[in-house]
Amino acid sequence: MSKVSNRTKIATALVGALALAGSNFVVAGPLADVQKADSSLHAASAASQQKVDKYFDQAQDMLFEYGSVADERESLKSYNDYVAGLVADQQKTLDSIQTDINGVDKLRQGVVPLMFKMVEALDQFVNLDLPFNSEVRKERVENLKSILNTAEVTLAEKYRLILDAYSIEREYGSFVAVHTGKLSLDGKEVLVDFFNLGRVALYAQSLDQKTAWMYDADAKTWNKLEDSYLRDITKGIRIARKQGALDLFALPIPAAETAQ
Q: What angle do CA 36, 42, 48 make, to 5 degrees?
């Protein structure tokens, strides 16, 4: 083969190689673009996934918060219903109190005259009763009369004091007592022991135990007792003073129809 032909072959081979290399450069350009686009897609997908995860987490937080708010709302509703019930009950109580207050004036109009009548009746009773503890009892009645006309004492307190006085007078009817005092007889005063058996009878005995009297409620005088009663009245006085054992003793008493 000639040298020319060999050179031609070599040239042809170089041209072919160059052509092939050129074709590779041509193909390599679009492939790189595809790879870049694919990377961008992956990056965008990752960013989108992050946003989705973020929004999901926010949605979960909001759902939890909504559940908490809903529970709190139910709790507040139950509490409000409870408070509303209390308020309604308190309003009923206030209405009842207001009704009572509105009736106070009417009650006062009825109670005040009643209290005056009670004190007047007590005054008459003390004057007509056996004359024991007379000074104390009369002083108690006078105090009640004074209190009734005092503005500083409440109506309730006045009524309580009147009831206390009645209670004391009631207790006098069942007690046996002795106290020393002076008895006026024929213009003279005699030191005696007054001995009363409740409201059944009232006696007096001189301190020397030689003379005794019984009070006559009808005549309002003291009648002398027979000497035969001296021993028994002495026994009764000693028992009342707790200076002797309980025992029977016999004393005259006013007739039932005249006893006060």
A: 135
Q: What are phi and psi of 196, to 5 degrees?
A: -120, 140
Buried b (16+ CB within 10 A) or exposed e, 112-150: eeebeebbeebbeebeebbbbbeeebeebbeebeebbee
Asked if residues 251 and 203 have their Cβ atoms less than 8 Å apart, the reply is yes
Q: Whole-angstrom Cα distance, residue 107 to residue 115? A: 12
Q: What span, in angstroms and rounded, lies between the C-alpha atoms of 223 and 43?
A: 135
At residue 177, the 3 state secondary structure works out as strand
- Which three-class secondary structure state does DSSP give residue 118? helix
CB 232, CB 250: distance < 8 Å = yes
DSSP state of 218: T
Structure tokens at 176: 């046996």
| pTM, two decimal places | 0.54
- Say how far apart CA 28 and CA 21 lie, in whole Å: 11
* pLDDT tens, N- to C-terminus, the chain (260 residues): 444 455 555 555 555 554 544 544 444 566 676 677 667 777 777 787 888 888 888 888 888 888 888 888 888 888 888 888 888 988 888 888 877 777 666 777 788 899 999 999 999 999 988 888 888 999 999 999 999 999 899 988 999 999 999 999 998 887 888 989 999 888 889 999 999 888 889 999 999 999 999 999 888 899 999 999 999 999 999 998 888 888 788 888 887 554 44
Q: Which residues pair with 216 in a beta bridge?
A: 221
